[in-house]
Protein backbone atom coordinates (compact mmCIF):
# COMPACT_ATOMS: atom_id res chain seq x y z
CA UNK A 1 0.00 0.00 0.00
CA UNK A 2 1.19 3.54 -0.74
CA UNK A 3 2.93 5.29 2.16
CA UNK A 4 0.84 8.01 3.82
CA UNK A 5 3.73 10.48 3.60
CA UNK A 6 3.70 10.10 -0.17
CA UNK A 7 0.02 11.02 -0.17
CA UNK A 8 0.62 13.99 2.11
CA UNK A 9 3.36 15.21 -0.22
CA UNK A 10 1.09 14.79 -3.25
CA UNK A 11 -1.69 16.78 -1.57
CA UNK A 12 0.75 19.50 -0.54
CA UNK A 13 2.08 19.73 -4.10
CA UNK A 14 -1.49 20.31 -5.30
CA UNK A 15 -2.22 22.99 -2.70
CA UNK A 16 -2.04 26.03 -4.98
CA UNK A 17 -4.10 24.29 -7.63
CA UNK A 18 -6.70 23.23 -5.08
CA UNK A 19 -7.06 26.79 -3.83
CA UNK A 20 -7.46 28.07 -7.39
CA UNK A 21 -10.15 25.47 -8.11
CA UNK A 22 -12.01 26.29 -4.92
CA UNK A 23 -11.85 30.03 -5.67
CA UNK A 24 -13.36 29.47 -9.11
CA UNK A 25 -16.14 27.29 -7.73
CA UNK A 26 -16.86 29.71 -4.90
CA UNK A 27 -17.04 32.68 -7.27
CA UNK A 28 -19.43 30.89 -9.64
CA UNK A 29 -22.03 29.11 -7.46
CA UNK A 30 -25.17 27.58 -8.92
CA UNK A 31 -28.39 26.54 -7.22
CA UNK A 32 -29.61 22.96 -6.85
CA UNK A 33 -30.23 21.14 -10.15
CA UNK A 34 -28.90 24.18 -12.04
CA UNK A 35 -25.18 23.26 -11.83
CA UNK A 36 -24.57 23.31 -15.59
CA UNK A 37 -21.43 25.45 -15.59
CA UNK A 38 -20.08 23.83 -12.43
CA UNK A 39 -20.40 20.40 -14.02
CA UNK A 40 -18.75 21.62 -17.23
CA UNK A 41 -15.86 23.10 -15.24
CA UNK A 42 -15.27 19.84 -13.37
CA UNK A 43 -15.50 17.80 -16.55
CA UNK A 44 -12.95 20.09 -18.19
CA UNK A 45 -10.47 19.54 -15.38
CA UNK A 46 -10.94 15.76 -15.49
CA UNK A 47 -10.41 15.77 -19.26
CA UNK A 48 -7.25 17.83 -18.84
CA UNK A 49 -5.97 15.26 -16.37
CA UNK A 50 -6.86 12.39 -18.70
CA UNK A 51 -9.42 10.88 -16.32
CA UNK A 52 -12.38 9.13 -17.94
CA UNK A 53 -15.81 10.08 -16.64
CA UNK A 54 -19.47 10.29 -17.51
CA UNK A 55 -21.50 13.52 -17.38
CA UNK A 56 -25.24 14.13 -17.20
CA UNK A 57 -25.81 11.51 -14.51
CA UNK A 58 -28.98 12.20 -12.53
CA UNK A 59 -29.03 15.73 -13.89
CA UNK A 60 -25.68 17.54 -13.90
CA UNK A 61 -23.92 14.76 -11.98
CA UNK A 62 -20.56 13.28 -12.94
CA UNK A 63 -19.18 9.85 -12.18
CA UNK A 64 -16.10 7.87 -13.09
CA UNK A 65 -14.04 4.85 -12.11
CA UNK A 66 -10.36 4.57 -11.26
CA UNK A 67 -9.33 0.96 -11.79
CA UNK A 68 -6.44 -0.39 -9.79
CA UNK A 69 -4.92 -3.83 -10.08
CA UNK A 70 -7.55 -6.58 -9.92
CA UNK A 71 -10.27 -3.89 -10.29
CA UNK A 72 -13.19 -6.20 -9.57
CA UNK A 73 -11.94 -7.13 -6.12
CA UNK A 74 -13.67 -4.29 -4.25
CA UNK A 75 -15.15 -0.88 -5.09
CA UNK A 76 -15.06 2.17 -2.85
CA UNK A 77 -17.12 5.22 -3.79
CA UNK A 78 -16.26 8.83 -2.89
CA UNK A 79 -18.94 11.52 -3.13
CA UNK A 80 -18.97 15.33 -3.26
CA UNK A 81 -21.93 17.66 -3.83
CA UNK A 82 -22.03 20.57 -6.27
CA UNK A 83 -24.86 22.96 -5.45
CA UNK A 84 -24.94 26.28 -3.60
CA UNK A 85 -27.57 28.12 -1.54
CA UNK A 86 -29.85 31.11 -2.17
CA UNK A 87 -27.81 33.39 0.12
CA UNK A 88 -26.18 36.76 -0.63
CA UNK A 89 -22.52 36.60 0.35
CA UNK A 90 -21.11 39.20 2.76
CA UNK A 91 -17.45 38.18 2.61
CA UNK A 92 -15.13 40.82 1.13
CA UNK A 93 -12.71 38.44 -0.60
CA UNK A 94 -11.36 38.24 -4.18
CA UNK A 95 -13.28 35.00 -4.75
CA UNK A 96 -16.61 36.42 -3.52
CA UNK A 97 -19.67 35.06 -5.33
CA UNK A 98 -20.25 36.70 -8.68
CA UNK A 99 -23.80 35.34 -8.86
CA UNK A 100 -25.85 37.73 -6.77
CA UNK A 101 -28.06 35.96 -4.25
CA UNK A 102 -26.28 32.62 -4.64
CA UNK A 103 -23.42 31.45 -2.40
CA UNK A 104 -21.43 28.36 -1.47
CA UNK A 105 -22.40 28.76 2.17
CA UNK A 106 -22.39 25.03 2.93
CA UNK A 107 -18.89 24.23 1.69
CA UNK A 108 -19.81 22.22 -1.37
CA UNK A 109 -17.05 24.06 -3.22
CA UNK A 110 -14.63 22.55 -0.69
CA UNK A 111 -16.12 19.07 -1.07
CA UNK A 112 -15.81 19.23 -4.85
CA UNK A 113 -12.26 20.59 -4.72
CA UNK A 114 -11.08 17.89 -2.30
CA UNK A 115 -12.63 15.13 -4.38
CA UNK A 116 -11.03 16.48 -7.57
CA UNK A 117 -7.65 16.50 -5.84
CA UNK A 118 -8.19 12.99 -4.49
CA UNK A 119 -9.20 11.69 -7.92
CA UNK A 120 -6.03 13.12 -9.45
CA UNK A 121 -3.82 11.53 -6.80
CA UNK A 122 -5.61 8.18 -6.93
CA UNK A 123 -5.38 8.16 -10.72
CA UNK A 124 -1.61 8.46 -10.38
CA UNK A 125 -1.50 5.65 -7.83
CA UNK A 126 -3.75 3.14 -9.63
CA UNK A 127 -0.91 0.68 -10.27
CA UNK A 128 -0.27 0.54 -6.53
CA UNK A 129 -3.63 -0.60 -5.14
CA UNK A 130 -6.12 -3.39 -5.73
CA UNK A 131 -9.77 -2.73 -6.45
CA UNK A 132 -11.50 0.33 -7.86
CA UNK A 133 -12.46 3.80 -6.68
CA UNK A 134 -15.68 5.25 -8.05
CA UNK A 135 -16.11 9.02 -7.78
CA UNK A 136 -19.41 10.91 -7.74
CA UNK A 137 -19.94 14.63 -8.15
CA UNK A 138 -23.59 14.99 -7.14
CA UNK A 139 -26.05 17.78 -7.96
CA UNK A 140 -28.94 19.02 -5.84
CA UNK A 141 -28.09 18.09 -2.26
CA UNK A 142 -29.86 21.15 -0.86
CA UNK A 143 -33.25 20.61 -2.49
CA UNK A 144 -35.85 17.85 -2.53
CA UNK A 145 -35.95 15.21 -3.87
CA UNK A 146 -32.15 15.30 -3.61
CA UNK A 147 -29.53 14.57 -6.22
CA UNK A 148 -28.37 11.44 -4.38
CA UNK A 149 -31.68 9.76 -5.12
CA UNK A 150 -31.48 10.82 -8.77
CA UNK A 151 -27.97 9.40 -9.13
CA UNK A 152 -28.92 6.14 -7.44
CA UNK A 153 -31.81 5.76 -9.87
CA UNK A 154 -29.32 6.41 -12.67
CA UNK A 155 -27.36 3.37 -11.49
CA UNK A 156 -24.25 4.91 -9.89
CA UNK A 157 -24.09 2.21 -7.21
CA UNK A 158 -23.89 -0.54 -9.85
CA UNK A 159 -21.52 -1.58 -12.66
CA UNK A 160 -19.46 -2.21 -10.61
CA UNK A 161 -21.45 -2.54 -7.41
CA UNK A 162 -20.24 -0.25 -4.62
CA UNK A 163 -19.04 -2.11 -1.54
CA UNK A 164 -18.53 0.90 0.71
CA UNK A 165 -19.05 4.65 0.32
CA UNK A 166 -17.48 7.70 1.93
CA UNK A 167 -18.70 11.29 2.17
CA UNK A 168 -16.79 14.26 3.59
CA UNK A 169 -18.44 17.50 4.79
CA UNK A 170 -16.99 20.73 6.14
CA UNK A 171 -17.51 21.51 9.84
CA UNK A 172 -16.86 25.10 11.00
CA UNK A 173 -17.13 24.09 14.67
CA UNK A 174 -13.89 22.13 14.30
CA UNK A 175 -10.42 23.58 13.76
CA UNK A 176 -8.79 23.01 10.38
CA UNK A 177 -6.55 19.95 10.52
CA UNK A 178 -9.05 17.98 12.58
CA UNK A 179 -11.85 15.62 11.56
CA UNK A 180 -14.83 14.07 13.33
CA UNK A 181 -16.64 10.72 13.19
CA UNK A 182 -19.78 9.15 14.62
CA UNK A 183 -20.79 5.53 14.24
CA UNK A 184 -24.46 4.59 13.87
CA UNK A 185 -27.23 7.20 13.80
CA UNK A 186 -25.79 10.59 12.92
CA UNK A 187 -28.22 12.87 11.01
CA UNK A 188 -32.01 13.08 11.02
CA UNK A 189 -34.62 12.39 8.40
CA UNK A 190 -36.28 15.57 7.14
CA UNK A 191 -39.86 16.14 6.00
CA UNK A 192 -41.57 19.32 4.87
CA UNK A 193 -44.88 20.12 6.56
CA UNK A 194 -47.36 22.37 4.72
CA UNK A 195 -50.58 23.48 6.41
CA UNK A 196 -53.36 25.52 4.77
CA UNK A 197 -56.02 26.90 7.14
CA UNK A 198 -59.16 27.97 5.29
CA UNK A 199 -62.41 29.61 6.37
CA UNK A 200 -64.71 32.55 5.75
CA UNK A 201 -62.55 35.58 6.36
CA UNK A 202 -63.85 39.07 6.87
CA UNK A 203 -63.65 42.29 8.84
CA UNK A 204 -61.43 41.91 11.88
CA UNK A 205 -63.77 44.12 13.91
CA UNK A 206 -66.68 41.71 13.38
CA UNK A 207 -65.22 38.33 14.49
CA UNK A 208 -68.64 36.78 15.08
CA UNK A 209 -69.30 36.96 11.35
CA UNK A 210 -66.21 35.05 10.23
CA UNK A 211 -63.96 32.05 10.83
CA UNK A 212 -60.68 33.23 12.32
CA UNK A 213 -58.06 31.43 10.26
CA UNK A 214 -55.22 33.33 11.95
CA UNK A 215 -56.33 32.31 15.43
CA UNK A 216 -56.82 28.71 14.27
CA UNK A 217 -53.31 28.70 12.83
CA UNK A 218 -51.77 30.20 15.98
CA UNK A 219 -53.46 27.71 18.29
CA UNK A 220 -52.52 24.83 15.99
CA UNK A 221 -48.83 25.79 15.99
CA UNK A 222 -48.76 25.76 19.79
CA UNK A 223 -50.80 22.56 20.03
CA UNK A 224 -48.64 20.74 17.46
CA UNK A 225 -45.61 20.94 19.73
CA UNK A 226 -47.24 18.26 21.88
CA UNK A 227 -46.67 15.80 19.03
CA UNK A 228 -42.99 15.83 20.01
CA UNK A 229 -43.23 16.70 23.71
CA UNK A 230 -46.03 14.22 24.56
CA UNK A 231 -46.09 11.55 21.84
CA UNK A 232 -42.50 10.98 20.71
CA UNK A 233 -40.69 8.00 22.27
CA UNK A 234 -38.15 9.52 24.70
CA UNK A 235 -35.25 7.60 23.14
CA UNK A 236 -35.90 8.99 19.65
CA UNK A 237 -34.73 12.58 19.08
CA UNK A 238 -37.37 14.58 17.20
CA UNK A 239 -37.90 18.18 16.11
CA UNK A 240 -41.01 19.92 14.74
CA UNK A 241 -40.47 23.55 13.73
CA UNK A 242 -42.38 26.06 11.61
CA UNK A 243 -40.47 28.93 10.05
CA UNK A 244 -42.77 30.30 7.36
CA UNK A 245 -46.24 31.81 7.87
CA UNK A 246 -48.33 33.73 5.32
CA UNK A 247 -51.63 35.29 6.42
CA UNK A 248 -52.26 37.71 3.53
CA UNK A 249 -54.56 39.79 5.70
CA UNK A 250 -54.34 43.31 7.12
CA UNK A 251 -54.81 45.09 10.44
CA UNK A 252 -58.54 44.99 9.87
CA UNK A 253 -58.83 41.92 7.65
CA UNK A 254 -58.94 38.25 8.65
CA UNK A 255 -57.92 36.38 5.49
CA UNK A 256 -59.77 33.35 4.14
CA UNK A 257 -56.53 31.36 4.04
CA UNK A 258 -53.35 31.12 6.11
CA UNK A 259 -50.33 29.08 5.02
CA UNK A 260 -47.78 27.55 7.38
CA UNK A 261 -44.63 25.70 6.35
CA UNK A 262 -42.19 23.81 8.55
CA UNK A 263 -40.05 20.74 9.06
CA UNK A 264 -40.24 17.49 11.01
CA UNK A 265 -37.07 15.51 11.77
CA UNK A 266 -36.40 12.26 13.56
CA UNK A 267 -34.46 8.96 13.55
CA UNK A 268 -37.03 6.18 13.37
CA UNK A 269 -39.20 5.22 10.39
CA UNK A 270 -42.10 3.78 12.41
CA UNK A 271 -42.32 6.87 14.60
CA UNK A 272 -41.84 9.12 11.57
CA UNK A 273 -44.94 7.68 9.90
CA UNK A 274 -46.98 7.88 13.10
CA UNK A 275 -45.92 11.49 13.70
CA UNK A 276 -47.10 12.48 10.23
CA UNK A 277 -50.59 11.21 11.07
CA UNK A 278 -50.59 12.92 14.48
CA UNK A 279 -49.58 16.22 12.89
CA UNK A 280 -52.36 15.97 10.32
CA UNK A 281 -55.02 14.94 12.84
CA UNK A 282 -54.14 17.66 15.34
CA UNK A 283 -53.98 20.45 12.75
CA UNK A 284 -57.36 19.46 11.34
CA UNK A 285 -59.04 19.14 14.74
CA UNK A 286 -57.82 22.55 15.92
CA UNK A 287 -58.97 24.12 12.66
CA UNK A 288 -62.39 22.45 13.02
CA UNK A 289 -62.76 23.83 16.55
CA UNK A 290 -62.57 27.32 15.03
CA UNK A 291 -64.98 26.53 12.23
CA UNK A 292 -62.13 26.28 9.74
CA UNK A 293 -60.64 23.58 7.58
CA UNK A 294 -56.99 22.56 7.34
CA UNK A 295 -55.42 20.96 4.32
CA UNK A 296 -52.28 19.07 5.29
CA UNK A 297 -49.51 18.24 2.84
CA UNK A 298 -46.42 16.37 4.05
CA UNK A 299 -43.52 15.87 1.67
CA UNK A 300 -41.29 12.98 2.68
CA UNK A 301 -37.72 14.22 2.51
CA UNK A 302 -34.33 12.65 3.05
CA UNK A 303 -34.03 9.52 5.20
CA UNK A 304 -31.97 9.54 8.38
CA UNK A 305 -28.25 9.04 7.90
CA UNK A 306 -26.77 6.02 9.65
CA UNK A 307 -23.04 5.38 9.49
CA UNK A 308 -22.11 1.73 9.11
CA UNK A 309 -20.20 0.70 12.27
CA UNK A 310 -17.57 -1.38 10.47
CA UNK A 311 -16.92 1.15 7.71
CA UNK A 312 -16.83 4.00 10.22
CA UNK A 313 -14.42 2.19 12.57
CA UNK A 314 -12.06 1.61 9.66
CA UNK A 315 -12.46 5.21 8.46
CA UNK A 316 -11.70 6.56 11.91
CA UNK A 317 -8.65 4.31 12.20
CA UNK A 318 -7.43 5.61 8.85
CA UNK A 319 -7.90 9.22 9.97
CA UNK A 320 -5.96 8.59 13.17
CA UNK A 321 -3.13 7.07 11.13
CA UNK A 322 -3.11 9.96 8.67
CA UNK A 323 -3.66 12.93 11.00
CA UNK A 324 -2.80 11.61 14.46
CA UNK A 325 -5.25 10.54 17.18
CA UNK A 326 -5.23 14.01 18.69
CA UNK A 327 -6.81 15.38 15.52
CA UNK A 328 -9.75 12.95 15.38
CA UNK A 329 -12.81 13.68 17.53
CA UNK A 330 -16.21 12.20 18.34
CA UNK A 331 -19.25 13.90 16.80
CA UNK A 332 -22.62 14.49 18.43
CA UNK A 333 -25.87 13.43 16.82
CA UNK A 334 -27.34 16.17 14.56
CA UNK A 335 -30.90 17.14 13.68
CA UNK A 336 -29.73 18.57 10.38
CA UNK A 337 -30.19 16.37 7.31
CA UNK A 338 -28.21 15.15 4.31
CA UNK A 339 -29.28 13.32 1.20
CA UNK A 340 -26.14 11.19 1.61
CA UNK A 341 -28.58 9.26 3.79
CA UNK A 342 -29.94 7.67 0.60
CA UNK A 343 -26.48 6.26 -0.14
CA UNK A 344 -25.98 5.16 3.47
CA UNK A 345 -29.23 3.19 3.40
CA UNK A 346 -28.26 1.47 0.15
CA UNK A 347 -24.64 0.48 0.89
CA UNK A 348 -22.31 0.45 3.93
CA UNK A 349 -21.17 4.05 4.29
CA UNK A 350 -19.39 6.61 6.44
CA UNK A 351 -20.13 10.33 6.42
CA UNK A 352 -17.56 12.32 8.39
CA UNK A 353 -16.67 15.95 9.10
CA UNK A 354 -13.69 18.02 7.97
CA UNK A 355 -12.64 20.88 10.25
CA UNK A 356 -12.46 24.29 8.56
CA UNK A 357 -12.32 26.74 11.50
CA UNK A 358 -9.47 29.16 12.22
CA UNK A 359 -10.21 31.54 15.07
CA UNK A 360 -6.89 33.40 14.65
CA UNK A 361 -7.97 34.37 11.12
CA UNK A 362 -11.57 35.09 12.15
CA UNK A 363 -12.92 32.13 10.19
CA UNK A 364 -15.70 31.12 12.57
CA UNK A 365 -19.04 31.67 10.81
CA UNK A 366 -21.50 28.80 10.69
CA UNK A 367 -22.92 26.90 7.74
CA UNK A 368 -25.72 28.54 5.73
CA UNK A 369 -24.67 32.05 6.81
CA UNK A 370 -23.61 34.97 4.54
CA UNK A 371 -20.17 35.15 6.18
CA UNK A 372 -19.27 31.46 5.93
CA UNK A 373 -15.73 30.75 4.76
CA UNK A 374 -13.03 28.16 5.43
CA UNK A 375 -9.37 27.96 6.33
CA UNK A 376 -8.06 26.75 2.99
CA UNK A 377 -5.45 24.59 4.69
CA UNK A 378 -8.41 22.21 5.03
CA UNK A 379 -8.30 21.63 1.25
CA UNK A 380 -4.97 19.89 1.54
CA UNK A 381 -6.10 17.94 4.61
CA UNK A 382 -9.38 16.90 3.02
CA UNK A 383 -7.77 15.85 -0.26
CA UNK A 384 -5.05 13.74 1.30
CA UNK A 385 -7.40 12.15 3.81
CA UNK A 386 -9.89 11.14 1.11
CA UNK A 387 -7.10 9.32 -0.71
CA UNK A 388 -5.92 7.57 2.45
CA UNK A 389 -9.47 6.65 3.42
CA UNK A 390 -10.17 5.10 0.01
CA UNK A 391 -6.95 3.08 0.05
CA UNK A 392 -7.61 1.90 3.60
CA UNK A 393 -11.10 0.69 2.72
CA UNK A 394 -9.63 -1.23 -0.25
CA UNK A 395 -7.11 -3.13 1.87
CA UNK A 396 -7.70 -6.88 2.13
Distance between the termini: 11 Å
The strand count comes to 16
The CATH topology name of the largest domain reads: Aminopeptidase
CATH class of the largest domain: Alpha Beta
Shape-level CATH architecture of the largest domain:
3-Layer(aba) Sandwich
Total of DSSP H or I helical runs spanning 4+ residues: 10
Q: How many structural domains are formed by the residues?
A: 2
Key attributes of the depicted protein:
Aminopeptidase, eight-stranded mixed beta sheet, 24% strand, single chain, four-stranded antiparallel beta sheet, 10 helices, Alpha-Beta Plaits, 2 domains, 35% helix, 396 residues, alpha/beta
What's the SSE blueprint?
Blueprint lengths: L3 H10 L1 H13 L8 H13 L5 E4 L3 E7 L7 E7 L26 H17 L7 E7 L8 H7 L10 E12 L3 E3 L2 E4 L3 E8 L3 E2 L9 H19 L7 E8 L6 E2 L2 E9 L3 H21 L3 E7 L5 E3 L1 H15 L4 E3 L9 H7 L2 E9 L19 H18 L2
Parallel strand pairs: 3-4, 3-5, 5-16, 6-15
Antiparallel strand pairs: 1-2, 2-4, 6-16, 7-14, 8-12, 8-13, 9-11, 10-12
Would you summarize the structure shown here?
The protein is an alpha/beta fold and 396 residues long.
Structural description of this entry:
By secondary structure, the chain is an alpha/beta fold. It folds into two domains: 4-187 and 304-394, Aminopeptidase (3-Layer(aba) Sandwich), CATH 3.40.630.10; 191-299, Alpha-Beta Plaits, CATH 3.30.70. Helix content is 35%, strand content 24%. It has ten helices and 16 strands. The protein has helices at 4-13, 15-27, 36-48, 108-124, 147-153, 213-231, 269-289, 309-323, 340-346, 377-394; strands at residues 54-57, 61-67, 75-81, 132-138, 164-175, 179-181, 184-187, 191-198, 202-203, 239-246, 253-254, 257-265, 293-299, 305-307, 328-330, 349-357. The strands form four sheets. The protein has an eight-stranded mixed sheet with strand order 1-2-4-3-5-16-6-15, with helices on both faces. The chain has a four-stranded antiparallel sheet with strand order 10-12-8-13, with helices on one face. The protein has a two-stranded antiparallel sheet with strand order 7-14. Helix 1 runs antiparallel to helix 10 and helix 8 (309-323) packs across helix 10 (377-394). The longest helix is centred in the last third of the chain and has 21 residues, at 269-289. It is elongated. 48% of the residues are buried. The model has no long low-confidence stretch (mean pLDDT 97).
Amino acid sequence: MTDKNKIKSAAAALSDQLIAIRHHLHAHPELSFQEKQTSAYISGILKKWGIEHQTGVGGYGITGLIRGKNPGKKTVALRADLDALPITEQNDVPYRSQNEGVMHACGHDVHTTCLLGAVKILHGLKEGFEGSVKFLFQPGEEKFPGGALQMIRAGVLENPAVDVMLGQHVFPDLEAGKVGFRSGMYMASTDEIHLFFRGNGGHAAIPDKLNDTVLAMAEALVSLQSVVSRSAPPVIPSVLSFGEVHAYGATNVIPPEVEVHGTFRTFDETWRKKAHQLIADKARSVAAAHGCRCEVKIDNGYPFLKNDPEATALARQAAEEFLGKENVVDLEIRMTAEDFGYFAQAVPACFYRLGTRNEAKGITSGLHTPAFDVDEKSLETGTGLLVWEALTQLKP
